[in-house]
Structure formats: structure tokens, C-alpha cells
């Protein structure tokens, strides 16, 4: 086990907590920037804990996108192929985005169940220095400056899972700290 956890917590593999899928792949001639169809978010749309909609986002015809990769509330998105310093850059989807997906170089981490607390907890853990170091350790260098995070290896990551009530307390504390930082 990576580190000691409280007795009422459990170590669980990520694959037992969620699914991980990549977004849509497309040919250059299939995309446009005319705001018609399904918006395709890329790694540049993902900031730490925040998703940014940009004026230069790409769009793809609806029939080219599987409904299963449209973004849903509590999904977590993170670049699957990125520079080393951007590994661990993640955002949580706050509400269903029925006209939005991500590109093929981005992971959609979709927790089983619909717990807002668990989704927020998972985002916080996956953005922690411990999880980021693990993700860096399972990357493969691709070309000059990009690193691929291996999906299968990521699925085997161990996540310390607290009881639901504790997840709620953690969420409230994090929300309180972030609100003070922003003030």
C-alpha cells in the first residue's frame, strides 16, 4: 500500500470505482468552428479544477459522437497525452453537457454511481502530489515533448476511499479552503 490510511478507509483500484474512456477521434475535414454540432474540448480547455470553454473550440457533427462519451455531471476530464508538467491537470463536470465531449487525447473518468461527494473526493485525490507522481511514473514518452498516460496502468492505481460521511466532510473542508483562497 502506498501509505497508511485510517482503519475505516479502504484501498480500491481505480477500475473498481469508475470507467475511463477517451473522447472522439476525427479527421480534420470533419471538424468546424461554426458552433454547430457537438463541441470537442481538448487538453487546453482543462485547467486545474476548472473547465474552460473557448471561442476557438472545435465542433463535430452529432452523428460522429457516441452518446456514451458526452460529458455528464461528476465526470472528471484530464489530458491523456500532455507535457510532463500538465500531468494531473483535471476538471470536474458540474452538470450534464449533452452537446459536449472531449477529443481523443483526453480521458473521461466516470465514477460509478452519482455521488457528488465521491466525484469531488476523487478529483481531489487524483490531483494530489501522490497521484500525480504515480501518473508520471506510468507515462510513456511520445515524441519530443509529450507523455502518454497508460489507461490500463491508470485503471490499476490504488485510491484510498473514505466512508461517504467522511467524503462529505472532506468536500466541505476543501470548499471552505478554496473560498478563502478566492476571497
From TrEMBL:
SUPFAM superfamilies: DNA methylase specificity domain
Keywords noted in UniProt: DNA-binding, Endonuclease, Hydrolase, Nuclease, Restriction system
Family annotation (CDD domains): RMtype1_S_EcoKI-TRD1-CR1_like
Domain annotation Type I restriction modification DNA specificity: ranges: 6-179
Pfam families: Methylase_S
Gene Ontology MF annotations: DNA binding; endonuclease activity
Source domain of life: Bacteria
Gene Ontology biological process: DNA restriction-modification system
Family: Belongs to the type-I restriction system S methylase family.
Protein name per Swiss-Prot or TrEMBL: Restriction endonuclease subunit S
